[in-house]
Structures are given as structure tokens and as C-alpha cells.
Design goal:
Layout (H helix, E strand, L loop, with lengths): L4 E2 L2 H13 L4 H14 L7 E6 L3 H15 L3 E5 L7 H12 L17 E5 L11 H11 L4 E5 L21 E5 L11 H4 L2 E5 L13 E3 L20 E6 L5 H13 L4 E6 L14 E4 L11 E4 L7 H12 L4 E3 L2 H7 L2 H8 L5 E3 L3 H8 L3 H6 L1 H12 L2 E4 L5 E4 L4 E3 L12 H14 L4 H23 L7 H14 L2
Parallel strand pairs: 2-3, 2-4, 4-5, 5-6, 6-7, 8-17, 9-10, 9-12, 10-11, 12-13, 13-14, 14-15
Antiparallel strand pairs: 1-8, 15-16, 16-17
Helix pairs in contact: 2-3, 3-4, 7-14, 7-16, 9-11, 11-13, 14-15, 14-16, 15-16
Bound molecules: ligand NPW and potassium ion (K).
Length: 485
């Protein structure tokens, strides 16, 4: 658990102060971890450029530079601005004593090194960068080499994932003490590269409580007794598939079967199909708003739902039910424009899961998608609070938030899943896991994880993210569920 913990920034700062009071030199440890990282990858005559900023992120980089010089590497140090923190000034002095002469700027024909170590700014970046700093970062980004960011890529807010206009685009990030969520989402997803944690052997007693974790939910709650039958694995009723969007409901239904739901009813507002020839196990029916609901353990509403009158009637009906419920797509859009139904949702006695993408979250919060992406965690928390439910905020670094539980940050998945119908698959997966008895937070987390793993696996096998269809994703999800049992 420790290695997956996510601490808030104030908690991290308190730890820093406490460690200093106790005489733990975390900067030296960060420098050693950096030097070890380099030694494991680069031969000792490699040329390395270490870019150090004025604060303690720069101090980490300077001490690492010293260790690498001592290990025989050819090290250039770029220090665009004088060191201001006490520890980085001490590091600079040690470098000078060892014969190192920092450069204030790089010549325009500076030869490309094998590695850039980015120690310009870490968690202390507190305001917009000047044009001079932006020019430095642009020059560093243009170097065609490995780029290791210390703690976080400089120019990135490691908590919100917002990048300043100039931001280091790292191939790798070695982050210290704990993971930071902004490395995984928004601009962080494209700037942090491969992320590794250096925990710095901080004593257990100093560690703050986690406010969240990287999502590592396994499938053990789905283990089956040999003496079981389809009725043991839950019945799901999925409603959607309006005219022109029938496929969305089918995709969700097929995914639910692939994720192990015992029986799946698919009620479509289109009604023109009575069987899915490619998946005859699904029980299809016209979603007449006047019909009684089939007996079910879980409801899901949204894939291909549309926003017409019958769609609204169904939203009202499912909100009034006492069954666990997943709401996606147009169910969320309808909810966004109806204060009464929002009120009903907040008072539901059973658990509800909302699975918005940033634009749907923005409609529910009456703000812009950019606002949601500007602080994803805060947006997901607001939704969970307001509607007293579980929220799965989709997008790179999906977040799973339930009031009163540590949030989970999903680290699997990537652009292979940015394709039509993948949201419908995710809805089907979550609903199937609920139907098999998992609680809302765990079901959402497991579904997000296996969906992401399916996307990663495809990308690796195909050599790139293009071409994974939603239809082809469900079987990969089954395989991952079985592996994680
Ligand atoms: N947490 C821990 O326990 C550990 C932390 N460690 C390391 O310390 C790092 C945090 O160090 P930090 O607090 O000194 O912040 P950092 O990122 O170096 O930046 C601050 C400097 O930048 C300046 N500055 C800010 N914005 C600016 C701007 N836009 N443009 C220009 N200047 C700007 C700011 O100036 P000021 O605001 O004071 O004027 C100050 O000089 C952390 O990321 C990790 O690497 C490790 O040693 C292990 C233990
Ligand atoms: K950095």
C-alpha cells in the first residue's frame, strides 16, 4: 500500500519539515536515488546535462550531479539562476570544491548529451514562468535525448496536472516520497513519461495518512464457488439504445456478459432489434416506459439513451428504484438539466455510480471542460459530495471518488481507448461487477483497471494505439479479470 499512496501537498510539506527537524537528509537520499537510476541505465563515460533551479529541486539535481561526477560521468551543470535555498547553496559549494563550474546558459550549438536531468522546479513552482525560463525549457526540450525529471517535469503542477506554457517533456520521471496525481492526468499524462517512485526510506512513523491510492483493485471478490449457477452471478438490466444509437446498448450488454454477469436484459428505446445475432445470450426488449422492470439486481442507464421524453421517463424511473445504479452518457446530460432529479439522486438509498467524461462532468457542475481538467480531483470530489454517490471521472488518469473513502487514481489505459463505444463497454463492465456483488467503489475501480489493461495490452501487441474497437475490447477485459482473480 505504501508505494501506491497519494498524499496531499500540505501533508508532504509537513513531512518535509518534520524530517528536517529529525535530521533526516532527504535531499541526499533523493540525489542517491537519482544517481542509482542513472547508473542502472547509462555506461559511466556517458555525457549528462544536469539542469538545476534555484530551490530544493535544484539541490537534488546538484547533489546528484556531484555523485555522478564522482562516479566518472562527464557532467555539465546548467544553473540559469543563483541557488537560493540553503541546501542547494551547500550543494553548489560542494560541486565547486569538486572542480565543477556551472554554466549560466547553453550555447546554441551545445552538443546533445545522452541524458538531461531536469531539476529546475519541483513541487515549489508557485507562479507563471518568465519568458527567460520558458526559453531555457524550450532549449532543453529540443535536445534529442533521454530526459529524467526529478520529482516532476519542471513547469508542471504535479497535483493538478496543469502545464505552464513552457514545460519539460520528460521521457522518465523519478518522483520522491510519494506519487503525485498530476503526473498521471491532464498535461501530466504527456509530460511525465515513465514514472518511478523513490520512497527515500522515510521512517514509517513520519508518513502521513494517504488521501488516495493508485488503483490496484484486484478481482478476488469475483472468485466463484464450484457449486454456482448463472443466478449466483447477478442479473443486470441495462437501458439505452435509442434510434441510431442501438449499438451503444449492445456494446454495454456484451461487455457485461464478458465481465461475468449471470443474466443481462437490454431494454432499447429503439426497439427494432429483438435479438443480438452476434451475442444471442443478451435478452433484448423494447424499453416501453410503461412496462414493468424485469427482475434485476442492478440497473444501468445511459449508453445510446438520447434525450427525448421516453429517455427522461426512464431516468426518473431508475432514480426512484432501490437498486444499485450506473448512470452514463445521456443519463448524465439529462440529469444536468433537471434540478429535481438531481435532488432525487442525492437522496437515493442505494448506491449510484456516475461515469462522466470531462464534458459531462462540466455540464453537471455548470462549468467548462477546461475547468474540470484544470483540477480533476476537485471536480470529481464536488460531484461525489453533491450527489452522494461514486464518481468515475474518465480521461487519462481516471479518478474514482466516493465520499468517505480514499480516492483511487487509475494508471492503466491510454489513447487506444479513445474510441467510439469504449464508454459503453466501461458501463457494462461496472454494472456486471456490481451484479456480482462488488460494492460501488471497488466495482468502478476494477472496471477502470481492467479496461485500461485491455487497452495497454492492445497497444503493446499492435505496436500502437490505433484500431482497438470497443467490440474487440470486452474479451480482453474477461482475460484480465481472470488474471486478477
Ligand atoms: N518534500 C520533501 O520532503 C522533499 C523535497 N525534495 C525536493 O525539493 C523540491 C521542493 O523544493 P522547493 O520547495 O524548494 O521548491 P522548488 O520546486 O525547488 O522551487 C522553489 C524555487 O523556485 C522558485 N520559483 C517558484 N516558482 C517560480 C517561477 N515561476 N519562476 C521562478 N522561480 C520560481 C522559488 O522562488 P521563490 O518563490 O522563493 O521566490 C524557489 O526558489 C521537491 O520537488 C523535491 O525535488 C527532495 O529533496 C526530497 C524531500
Ligand atoms: K523537475
Amino acid at each position: 500500500m505504501r508505494e501506491n499512496a497519494l498524499w496531499s501537498l500540505p501533508a508532504l510539506r509537513r513531512l518535509e519539515t518534520e524530517a528536517e527537524l529529525q535530521g533526516l537528509d532527504l535531499m541526499q537520499r533523493a540525489a542517491r536515488a537519482t544517481a542509482d537510476w542513472v547508473r542502472q541505465r547509462l555506461h559511466s563515460d556517458a555525457r549528462i546535462l544536469v539542469a538545476a533551479g534555484p530551490g530544493n529541486n535544484g539541490g537534488d539535481a546538484l547533489y546528484a550531479a556531484l555523485l555522478l561526477m564522482q562516479a566518472g560521468y562527464s557532467v555539465d551543470i546548467l544553473l540559469p539562476q543563483a541557488a537560493t535555498s540553503r541546501q542547494s547553496q551547500a550543494a553548489l559549494q560542494a560541486i565547486r570544491q569538486a572542480g565543477g563550474i556551472p554554466l549560466q546558459q547553453l550555447a546554441s550549438d551545445y552538443p546533445t548529451p545522452e541524458l538531461l536531468i531536469d531539476g529546475l522546479f519541483g513541487i515549489g513552482l508557485s507562479r507563471p514562468l518568465s519568458a527567460d525560463w520558458a526559453a531555457v525549457m524550450t532549449q532543453l526540450n529540443a535536445l534529442d535525448c533521454l530526459k529524467l525529471a526529478l520529482d516532476c517535469p519542471s513547469g508542471l503542477d504535479p497535483y493538478t496536472g496543469q502545464a505552464q506554457q513552457a514545460c519539460i517533456r520528460a521521457s522518465h520521471t523519478l518522483t520522491f516520497l510519494c506519487h503525485k496525481p498530476g503526473l498521471y492526468y491532464a498535461a501530466g499524462a504527456d509530460h511525465a513519461g515513465q514514472i518511478e517512485l523513490a520512497g527515500l526510506d522515510c521512517p514509517q512513523a513520519l508518513l502521513p495518512p494517504a488521501e488516495g491510492y493508485l488503483n490496484r483493485q484486484d478481482a478476488s471478490p469475483l472468485q466463484r464457488r464450484r457449486d454456482s449457477h448463472k443466478g449466483s452471478h447477478g442479473t443486470l438490466c441495462l437501458i439505452g439504445g435509442n434510434r441510431g444509437m442501438l449499438g451503444a446498448a449492445l456494446l454495454a450488454g456484451r461487455a457485461a456478459l464478458a465481465a461475468g454477469a449471470g443474466k443481462v436484459h437490454v431494454l432499447t428505446l429503439d426497439g427494432s432489434l429483438t435479438v443480438d445475432p452476434l451475442c444471442p445470450e443478451l435478452m433484448l426488449q423494447y424499453a416501453d416506459p410503461a412496462m414493468p422492470l424485469p427482475a434485476a439486481d442492478v440497473l444501468a442507464l445511459g449508453p445510446g439513451l438520447g434525450q427525448d421524453k421516453p429517455a427522461r421517463q426512464w431516468l426518473k424511473r431508475v432514480l426512484a428504484s432501490t437498486l444499485p445504479l450506473v448512470l452514463d452518457a445521456d443519463a448524465l446530460n439529462l440529469l444536468a438539466s433537471n434540478a429535481d432529479l438531481q435532488h432525487t439522486l442525492a437522496r437515493r438509498p442505494a448506491s449510484t455510480i456516475l461515469t462522466p467524461h470531462p464534458a459531462e462532468a462540466a455540464r453537471l457542475l455548470a462549468c467548462s471542460s477546461a475547468d474540470v481538467q484544470g483540477d480533476r480531483l476537485s471536480a470529481a470530489r464536488q460531484l461525489a459530495e453533491r450527489f452522494q454517490c461514486t464518481v468515475l471521472l474518465k480521461g487519462a488518469g481516471s479518478l474514482i471518488v466516493t465520499v468517505g473513502q480514499p480516492y483511487l487514481l487509475n494508471t492503466s489505459g491510454g489513447p487506444a481507448l479513445a474510441a467510439a463505444g469504449q464508454g459503453d463497454v466501461l458501463t457494462g463492465l461496472i454494472a456486471a461487477l456490481l451484479a456480482q456483488g462488488m460494492e460501488a467503489h471497488a466495482a468502478s475501480s476494477l472496471a477502470a483497471r481492467v479496461h485500461g489493461l485491455a487497452g495497454d495490452e492492445y497497444q503493446q501487441q499492435a505496436g500502437g494505439p490505433i484500431g482497438l474497437t470497443a467490440s474487440a475490447t470486452s474479451q480482453r477485459c474477461s482475460a484480465w479479470l481472470n488474471r486478477l482473480l
